[in-house]
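Sanity check record (used in CI):
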Amino acid sequence: MAAIIFIQPDGTRQSVQGVVGKSVMEAAVRHNVPGIDAECGGSCSCGTCHVHVRDEWSGRLPPKSADEEATLDCAFGVLHDSRLSCQIVFREELDGLVVHL
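Expected output for 2Fe-2S iron-sulfur cluster binding domain-containing protein:
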């Protein structure tokens, strides 16, 4: 397992253990990260796991799918670096991944 760092809007950092092959959202839910509600359980339909992935990490992620883009179109606070954490499958290469809520 490796680390995923969640940064709250107030700057508070929470480091949790990610599991390879599981989503970043699943790690957040397992560790009770505030701000990740995951209402749809990871089916890419609610946007309640919306995070911002800065440029230094975004290049390591696969591109957004059409479904992810469509869900983000209905989310609040969407920017160019917006992703759904349910759609980010954790890999060893993402050890230390930083996501902003």
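The two ends are 22 Å apart (CA to CA). If this sentence no longer matches the regenerated tokens, the check is flagged for review.
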